From TrEMBL, chain A:
<feature type="transmembrane region" description="Helical">
    <location>
        <begin position="243"/>
        <end position="267"/>
    </location>
</feature>
<keyword id="KW-1133">Transmembrane helix</keyword>
<dbReference type="GO" id="GO:0055085">
    <property type="term" value="P:transmembrane transport"/>
</dbReference>
<feature type="transmembrane region" description="Helical">
    <location>
        <begin position="200"/>
        <end position="223"/>
    </location>
</feature>
<feature type="transmembrane region" description="Helical">
    <location>
        <begin position="15"/>
        <end position="36"/>
    </location>
</feature>
<dbReference type="GO" id="GO:0005886">
    <property type="term" value="C:plasma membrane"/>
</dbReference>
<feature type="transmembrane region" description="Helical">
    <location>
        <begin position="141"/>
        <end position="164"/>
    </location>
</feature>
<keyword id="KW-1003">Cell membrane</keyword>
<comment type="similarity">
    <text>Belongs to the binding-protein-dependent transport system permease family.</text>
</comment>
From TrEMBL, chain B:
<keyword id="KW-0472">Membrane</keyword>
<feature type="transmembrane region" description="Helical">
    <location>
        <begin position="109"/>
        <end position="129"/>
    </location>
</feature>
<feature type="transmembrane region" description="Helical">
    <location>
        <begin position="12"/>
        <end position="34"/>
    </location>
</feature>
<dbReference type="GO" id="GO:0005886">
    <property type="term" value="C:plasma membrane"/>
</dbReference>
<keyword id="KW-0812">Transmembrane</keyword>
<feature type="transmembrane region" description="Helical">
    <location>
        <begin position="271"/>
        <end position="290"/>
    </location>
</feature>
<keyword id="KW-1133">Transmembrane helix</keyword>
<comment type="similarity">
    <text>Belongs to the binding-protein-dependent transport system permease family.</text>
</comment>
<protein>
    <submittedName>
        <fullName>ABC transporter permease subunit</fullName>
    </submittedName>
</protein>
């Protein structure tokens, strides 16, 4: 195929295509570069020279001050704890439930599965007001576990759907031979299914991990103690209180982007693959 | 007997495995969702244990409120303009990226990049970009001698929706691009090969080969982007907060404002019920329409 594409007639469109795509890439990089380079600039230089950084205008002070005022360390650990708890719930409960669905069993559970899948398209906004009262009753307001349960309730239908789809594609012979060897359903799940589904677990961790890490709505509603705020919530509050102090706002913005960027660059390949595979199934 | 035992045993095991997830979904999603339906017919204020049923009052209040017309208009704008524009752009980019040999991976990563950041981050950046005094757009226009073209993009009723949509498109294209690329990668290469031997043009190939072969990915993307835009909260909330006035309010923002700013919980839940019904109706409608089209292509 590459050979055909490489032949003369198609060479010219390649140049045009690359020009178009390079312009699109520029349109994507400019806003990001704009925020990035201004995070390292004195306020006075930002309005005059918004697109380039000189030795003269360089400073690290914005980042340092934003680090303090965002309570970055606390917010980072809050975000990380919420992420870990939510993903633990999603992966364990989600894969277990999907396994329960694909076991040869009665029709009731199959029906339940259809219902799970239908829940994927229900907007989470429908839950928010009663959810708050419920969390108060369960003493889960201002609790990381409370936030994690909210995410679990929101995303489990999707995760179950994803796992069930891939579990169905595992050949029955593998499972049958395991059961002949005396593996019960639970053992088969732990020793046969989960190791085979590492990729899916990776997809769940990446897709849902990113959306939970970046989410504003749930922490905005459930958490009201400053010491428990997550990175996006801190950044939102910080940027609304610093209107006009663009040096600080950019410093904070870049700082908040740092952890996920490092993660993305480290796992770029599997990240993109995961999103593609996951979204095709979802 | 043993067969019966095996089947029964796995049904019991299945139920036990489904139970924990079912409990979490039931308690933290389903129960509050159903309560919203119930409370939307009451004057409950979100806190006190007492409330009375008030019939359709909340719905009447929401539907007759001055901003509801604007809300409908904005929703139609986003569904009617944002969804097709977003899908056309993502599909074209996917086709272009699929065609290039070198740099394809780089283009993919760059266009996908905004997706890894919080919508709070994206909202902040675009808010500054659109700033009429200070922003880079205003600065570039000034350098070009076109100061008069600089507008308060987010501060005017006439420009806020297109400006907001542009930033949402900028943010979302990467995600939909990936799905289209995934769809393209499932097309067997020999179809394109034999087509190129037949000597068809680029547009013919797009129209008669790529479109029909992508129809499944198109269906997924149209439905997912329609649901996505109806329920999007973070980005518009950070960018405009629904303003100026109600000019850029979306259903999701309006629900939040009713519930937590103006403390009209009944109205918030009535609107949330409307949003759920609209989302379900649009999802089912689109699926039926698109499935019929997909079937017609086969």
């Amino acid at each position: 195929m590459n050979k055909v594409r490489g032949e003369g007639r198609l060479q010219k469109p390649q140049v045009a295509t690359n020009v178009i795509l390079a312009l699109v890439a520029l349109f994507y990089l400019l806003p990001l570069w704009y925020a990035l380079n201004n995070a390292f600039k004195y306020a006075e230089s930002i309005s005059v020279q918004p697109f380039w950084l000189t030795k003269h205008s360089f400073t690290f002070e914005n980042i340092a001050r934003a680090y303090e005022q965002l309570h970055f360390k606390t917010a980072f650990f809050n975000s990380a704890l919420i992420l870990a708890l939510s993903l633990l719930l999603l992966v364990t409960l989600g894969s277990l439930a999907a396994y329960g669905v694909i076991l040869p069993n009665n029709r009731a559970i199959r029906r339940l599965y259809t219902f799970f899948v239908a829940l994927i398209s229900v907007p989470p906004q429908i839950t928010i007001v009663p959810l708050l009262l419920l969390l108060k009753r369960l003493d889960l307001v201002n609790s990381f576990l409370g936030v994690a349960f909210v995410y679990a309730g929101m995303y489990l239908p999707f995760v179950i759907f994803l796992y069930a789809g891939f579990m169905r594609s595992i050949p029955k012979e593998i499972v049958e031979s395991a059961s002949i060897d005396g593996c019960g359903p639970l053992k088969t799940y732990i020793h046969i299914y989960m190791p085979l589904l590492k990729t899916i677990t990776g997809i769940v961790l990446v897709i849902r991990g990113v959306s939970i890490w970046n989410d504003l709505l749930v922490p905005l509603i459930v958490l009201n103690k400053n010491a428990m705020f997550t990175l996006p919530l801190q950044l939102y509050i910080f940027s609304s209180s610093k209107v006009g102090q663009w040096d600080l706002v950019f410093g904070g913005t870049v700082l908040v982007c740092l952890p996920i960027t490092v993660f993305f660059l480290a796992f770029q390949k599997s990240f993109v693959k995961g999103v593609m595979a996951g979204s095709l199934k979802g | 007997m043993r067969v019966w035992y095996r089947n029964n045993r796995s049904a019991v095991a299945g139920a036990a495995f489904v139970l924990p997830a079912l409990a979490v979904i039931g308690v933290f999603f389903l129960y509050p969702a159903l309560m919203s339906f119930r409370y939307s017919f009451t004057n409950w204020n979100g806190i006190s244990p007492d409330f009375d049923y008030v019939g359709w009052d909340n719905f009447r209040y929401v539907l007759q409120s001055p901003q509801f017309k604007q809300l409908i208009w904005n929703t139609l704008f986003l569904i009617g303009l944002y969804v097709p524009v977003l899908n056309i752009i993502s599909m074209l980019l996917a086709v272009l990226i699929y065609d290039v040999r070198r740099f394809a991976g780089m283009y993919k990563v760059i266009i996908y990049l905004p997706n890894i950041f919080s919508m709070v981050v994206v909202g902040i950046i675009w808010k500054v970009i659109y700033n009429p005094v200070f922003g880079p757009v205003a600065l570039v226009l000034e350098k070009l001698g076109k100061e008069s073209w600089a507008q308060d993009w987010l501060g005017q009723t006439a420009t806020v929706m297109p400006a907001m949509s542009l930033s949402i498109v900028w943010y979302s294209v990467g995600f939909y691009l990936m799905i289209y690329l995934g769809g393209l990668s499932t097309i067997p290469p020999d179809i394109y090969e034999s087509a190129s031997i037949e000597g068809i043009t680029w547009f013919q190939r797009l129209r008669y080969l790529t479109f029909p072969l992508l129809s499944h990915a198109i269906t997924i993307n149209i439905v997912v982007s329609a649901i996505g835009i109806l329920t999007i909260f973070d980005l518009p909330f950070v960018l405009t907060g629904g303003g100026p006035g109600f000019a850029s309010q979306t259903m999701a923002i309006s629900i939040y404002i009713y519930a937590f700013k103006s403390m009209q919980q009944g109205s918030a839940m009535a609107l949330a019920v409307i949003l759920t019904l609209v989302t379900t109706a649009i999802t089912l409608g689109l699926l039926r329409l698109l499935n019929r089209r997909e079937a017609a292509h086969e």
